[in-house]
Automatic annotation (TrEMBL), chain A:
One of the record's GO molecular function terms: metal ion binding
Function: Component of the menaquinol:cytochrome c reductase complex.
Subunit structure: The main subunits of the menaquinol:cytochrome c complex are a Rieske-type iron-sulfur protein (QcrA), a cytochrome b (QcrB) and a cytochrome c (QcrC).
Principal subcellular localization: membrane
Organism, scientific name: Domibacillus aminovorans
Protein name: Menaquinol:cytochrome c reductase cytochrome b subunit
Subcellular location: Cell membrane
Automatic annotation (TrEMBL), chain B:
Family in the record: Belongs to the cytochrome b family.
Keyword Iron in record: yes
Xref: Pfam families: Cytochrom_B_C, Cytochrome_CBB3
Source species of the chain: Domibacillus aminovorans
Residue ranges constituting the Cytochrome c domain according to the UniProt record: 178-253
Positions of the Cytochrome b/b6 C-terminal region profile domain: 27-154
Gene3D superfamilies associated with the record: Cytochrome Bc1 Complex, Chain C, Cytochrome c-like domain
Coiled coil: none
Organism lineage string: Bacteria, Bacillati, Bacillota, Bacilli, Bacillales
Keyword field: Electron transport, Heme, Iron, Membrane, Metal-binding, Transmembrane, Transmembrane helix, Transport
InterPro entries on file: Cyt_b/b6_C (IPR005798), Cyt_b/b6_C_sf (IPR036150), Cyt_c-like_dom (IPR009056), Cyt_c-like_dom_sf (IPR036909), Cytb/b6-like_sf (IPR027387), Cytochrome_c550/c551-like (IPR051811), MenaQ_cyt_c_Rdtase_cyt_b/c-su (IPR012049)
Name of the protein this chain belongs to: Menaquinol:cytochrome c reductase cytochrome c subunit
Subcellular location: Membrane
GO cellular component assignments: membrane
């Protein structure tokens, strides 16, 4: 049955080459922890992706309850944390996952750096990877405000003040982020929500697609 | 693969009508102990992922994510702290030559050089050698930056009084207070309100009186003789009012 459906789609869309590109490739011995245990360092990139997927899924469920306005944001998070079935676990996964993704990405970066895996011909993939790092930090920064509790508000104030001290475009940058020259309030919360949920994830997915396509094209770097 | 003249397509589409069988390649002839990604290696990754997920869930259950009280922009005494992965950047801004008039150095030049260097690493470290020992500058700079990040994060976290910080952000329990009751009037007249506040939720100098779990007699005892930072003799009214006051306070429960 499944095979027939596959064949039916394949005849019309020729999906076998796509499937080949995604799944059908060899895993060399030097990256396989089953052969050399020290190859576990190659897991960090995959684990970063794994945690990112969890972040996207848990975030999708959080937005089912979260309300991005200053009157209800904290109340909705409090409700999610204390009343919703398994809300504490979903929010917990998103909260700890944010830290975990940074840790895994940091380890992945160190692995690639110390192995010199960014050298020709993989320079572009390294640059895209560093951009992913920045997007992740941006996601962490914007997500910190959303619960609208004390540390959220005051840490964001500090962050926006730092952005405001940027040479030349400081003031514009501050207004763009905060939505107002002086107030960190309702407008800031909705902007951070939009950045956290739409802008940065879109950038992240595009960059990750580029990252993975380049890996598939070039293959993983050889042993040292 | 058939190319060019004589190709047949499905209908008027660009899909070739010739079917390719979807059989994975055989990697046994590749160098070393190469393994097929699908499904052999993916299955192992799946198992590692499952173990990782269990550990992750255990952390989540053991440490519920924190939530402080609702943001109050008027509370100027609150000490802000960014999330831990920004602490090293935050700490940098505390040093004399990286803050105030030199803010640009701590806020942009140093982080800019560090992150710019990271981004441009493949164009700076261009040699063909890959082993860390064969490229001492790249390795040295990375180890130095790594040590600096660890040091700055440590310094930043070490300077924080975590207990005081937790108390500053703790969710304050609020009770429904009948301000027309005798108890509240006595509370007001005797000046209790000056330290314990008009919502009885305490303040900088006094703890909250909401949900204390104390019996009226115990509260009367404290009102007369004080406790902790509260001196004796704060209550100056008569015994009858004291009973009313202590009963009023003992019934306060959070909403």
């Amino acid at each position: 049955m499944l095979n027939k459906i596959y064949d039916w789609v394949d005849e019309r869309l020729d999906i076998t080459p796509m499937w080949r590109d995604i799944a059908d490739h060899e895993v060399p011995e030097h990256v396989n922890p089953a052969h050399h245990f020290s190859a576990f360092v190659y897991c960090f990139g995959g684990l970063t992706f794994f945690v990112t997927v969890i972040q996207i899924l848990s975030g999708m469920f959080l937005t089912m309850y979260y309300v991005p306005d200053i009157k209800n944001a904290w109340e909705s998070v409090y409700y999610l944390q204390n009343e919703v079935a398994f809300g504490v676990i979903v929010r917990g996964m998103h909260h700890w996952g944010a830290s975990l993704v940074i840790v895994m990405m940091f380890l992945h970066t160190l692995r690639v750096f110390f192995q010199g895996a960014y050298k020709k011909p993989r320079e572009l993939n390294w640059v895209v990877g560093v951009l992913i790092f920045f997007v992740m930090l941006g996601l962490g920064f914007t997500g910190y405000l959303l619960p609208w509790d004390m540390k959220a508000l005051f840490a964001t104030k500090v962050g926006i003040e730092i952005a405001a001290s940027t040479p030349l475009i400081g003031h514009e940058l501050k207004v763009l982020l905060a939505g107002h020259p002086d107030i960190i309030g309702a407008q800031t919360l909705t902007r951070f929500f939009a950045i956290h949920v739409f802008f940065l994830p879109a950038a992240l997915l595009a960059l990750m697609a580029g990252h993975f396509i380049m890996i598939r094209k070039q293959g993983i770097s050889g042993p040292l | 693969m058939h190319r060019g003249k004589g190709m047949k397509f499905v209908g008027d589409s660009r899909i070739p009508s010739e079917r390719k069988p979807n059989i994975p390649k055989d990697y046994s002839e590749y160098p070393g102990k190469t393994e097929a990604f699908w499904p052999n290696f993916l299955l192992k990754e799946w198992m590692v992922g499952a173990v990782f997920l269990i550990g992750y869930l255990c952390v989540t259950i053991a440490h519920p994510s924190p939530l402080e009280r609702v943001a109050d922009p008027t509370d100027t005494g609150y000490l802000p702290l960014p999330d831990w992965y920004f602490l090293f950047l935050y700490q940098l801004l505390k040093y004399t030559y990286a803050s105030g008039p030199y803010n640009v150095i701590g806020g942009f030049i140093i982080p800019g050089l560090a992150f710019g260097g990271l981004m441009l690493a493949p164009f700076i470290d261009r040699g063909p050698k890959r082993r860390p020992t064969q490229r001492p500058f790249a390795t040295g700079f990375m180890l130095l930056s790594f040590a600096a990040v660890i040091y700055l994060t440590w310094e930043s976290a070490d300077a924080v009084d975590w207990e005081a910080k937790e108390a500053m952000g703790a969710i304050v329990e609020e009770a429904e207070i009948d301000t027309n009751s005798d108890g509240f009037k006595i509370y007001q007249e005797n000046g209790c309100i000056n330290c314990h506040g008009d919502t009885l939720s305490g303040g900088a100098a006094a703890p909250s009186l909401v949900g204390t779990g104390l019996k009226p007699e115990e509260i009367a005892e404290i009102a007369k003789n004080g406790r902790g930072g509260m001196p004796a003799g704060m209550y100056k009214g008569n015994e009858e009012d004291l009973v009313k006051l202590s009963e009023f306070i003992s019934t306060l429960e959070a909403k």
